[in-house]
Amino acid sequence: MSSKPAASVAVQPESTVLENRYGRTRASRTRDARLLWGLGGIFAIVLVAWVVWTGLDGASEKIEARDTRHSIIDDHSISVTFEVSMPANSTASCAVQALNESFTVVGWKVVDIPPSDLYTRSFTQVLRTTDLSNTGLIYQCWLT
To answer: N or C: which end of the chain has fewer CB within 10 A?
Structure first.
């Protein structure tokens, strides 16, 4: 009887076989770590860019408008009083509107605000309306 020498087969531990089968090798962990660090770096760059952008935007000139009162004159006109706060010696325009009971715009006018040394000023504007209005207010103001 002749005995054949047993073939030597390298047996890997079971945990190594499972890691290779499901892609949890040392190379995949290194790749995943690099990917996470890269994504974290991109997020940090975007966050810093956003903070810088919003910080610089805060330095721009701003304008604020506030409705103070309105008076219904008759079925086709309304008086709107409002305050505008803006940088000194700058010009602006404000859209004033009149609304009826169903919040439909029944009057609209763009008012030009001249430059002044004062930061806050008050204005009164009479609007002609197409229907009876029940309120008048500032829609929007912008620097010109």
So the answer is: N
For residue 8 the two structure tokens come to 């030597």
Closest among 79, 86, 77, 75 to 112, alpha carbons compared: 86
The per-residue pLDDT for range 108-143, each reduced to its tens digit, is: 999 999 999 999 999 999 999 999 999 999 999 999
User: Which pair of structure tokens corresponds to residue 12?
Assistant: 């890997």
Which are the contacts of 48, defined by CB distance < 8 A and separation ≥ 6? none
Angle CA(118)–CA(92)–CA(94) in degrees, nearest 5?
110
pLDDT in tens, 23-80: 777 777 888 899 999 999 999 999 999 888 877 766 667 899 999 999 999 999 999 9
